[in-house]
Amino acid sequence: MNIDLYIHKNNNPAPLLLIGTMASQSHQLHFVLFPLIAQGHLIPMFDIARMLARHGVIVTIVTTRLNAKRFAIPLARAAESGLQIRALVVEVLKIGVSVGSQVTLKWGEEEKFGVLVKKEQVKNAVNSVMNVGEESEERRRRARELGKMANKAVEEEGSSYLSMKLLIEDIRKKTFAE
Questions:
Q1: Where are the domains of the chain?
Q2: Which Gene3D superfamilies does this chain map to (predicted)?
Q3: The pLDDT value given to residue 120
Q4: Which of 34, 65, 116, 143 could form a disulfide with 95 if both were Cys (CB 3.0 to 4.6 A apart)?
Q5: Of 83, 46, 98, 84, nearest to 68 (Cα)?
């Protein structure tokens, strides 16, 4: 009954390395899920995580600090059930900018609580990404670097490629065994 919450801050890669070594040492499948940040994607993503964990695999959900709060109760319940589901909170990837909203509300209530993101805030955020300058260039460099890492993971012999291959082999064995 482990419940783990890893926080990956700025330049501290230790939690990511820890997750990578856990899967290889135990020879146990380890799925890392990257849900879209939209609120409607969180519940289905946790349902998928629970389904995978019930089959004996380790599941890590990469999320933001704000969304990690939403996972707290389901993570605790999963741990009580013996399911290995973890949350990895990614503090800063340094590839995007905030446009102002730091809270979650129901659709249509933004103005009521004063958290409506204004056109000018979006314009400033886009400009800060697209502008010429050291900070903007560093953000784009990080985005390219992370893109290369993601592509490498899904290439043949990459970590995600191998995990998917094992999943498919397992599914084939179970499907064709009957």
A1: 1-92, 110-178
A2: Glycogen Phosphorylase B
A3: 87
A4: 143
A5: 46
